[in-house]
Amino acid sequence: GPAAPQRVLFPPTFSVSEIKNKQRRHFMFLRWKQQQRKEKLAAKKKRRKEREALGDKAPPKAIPKTIENQRVYDETTVDPNDEEVAFDEATDEFAPYFNRQTVPKILITTSDRPRGRTVRFCEQLATVIPNSHVYYRRGLALKRIIPQCIARDFTDLIVINEDRKIPNGLVLSHLPDGPTAHFRMSSVRLRKEIKRKGKEPTEHVPEVILNNFTTRLGHSIGRMFASLFPHDPQFIGRQVATFHNQRDYIFFRFHRYIFKSEKKVGIQELGPRFTLKLRSLQKGTFDSKFGEYEWIHKRREMDTSRRKFHL
């Protein structure tokens, strides 16, 4: 009689991408994915059954690998007891702030003739940072603004740059002697674009939380952010400004927390929120021509591994 039809078995080296017909290739790919999913679920079920059978004797669950916990070691990661770092920080440009000799006074300005969204962002940023003043720039070079700021006891200058009406950059310059950090800015959300937002922020000085700034460079940037805010938070205001560094992206959030009971605390986001990515850190105040750079992000040379971070 006729031979029984053979079930087609793919050779072990066979790859779906070798199928020339696009539809057929897509169909086979979906089938392969389905098969993978089935096997994964079966393995998971089996593991769970084994754990249940072992009860208390089950081995501890494995910690999943993430980009963060597989991070390439950075030799500039700061040890809390490092005396050299302690000395540097006792004598750096921010020491007068941390020794409470200076009180932060911040000028927030913009690129030339800002548009609506950038203007609103600056206004909202001024409600987050106490003792900050917004100045709309009309044709005045930053070089000219800086001496005026220093003469009026401003401790920091923030410049918000925009592209096609969207805020896309932030320059933070510590006065009178620098340093100056340039950030790329993205994902800006203004107050009215935040769901379930709290009432407007109050005048209270917020707490500042800096997460995950672990290297020497990270420490410098963290100190820059910290010194924008007055030293003594007014906890009665329950407002918190958070700079959270994850994979060299700095996420800014502004919250108010609410004690619902002795054990329960709720938080409301007040906004605005934005994300920063450090482009460069420059010694001294703003000087695009002759500035001496401490650090510049050079993607092709520096980002050799997806697990390497600089902050």
TrEMBL record:
Major site of localization recorded for this protein: nucleus
Record keyword Transferase present: no
GO molecular function, one term: rRNA primary transcript binding
Skewed-composition ranges (Basic and acidic residues): 50-59
Region (Disordered): 36-63
Stored InterPro entries: Brix (IPR007109), IMP4/RPF1 (IPR044281)
Pfam families given in the database record: Brix
GO CC term, one of those recorded: nucleolus
GO aspect biological process, one term: maturation of LSU-rRNA
Keywords from the UniProt entry: Ribosome biogenesis, rRNA processing
Localization per Swiss-Prot or TrEMBL: Nucleus, Nucleolus
Domain Brix: 104-287
Superkingdom, taxonomy of origin: Eukaryota
Main function: May be required for ribosome biogenesis.
Stated name of the protein: Ribosome production factor 1
Natural source organism: Tyrannus savana
Gene name for this UniProt entry: Rpf1
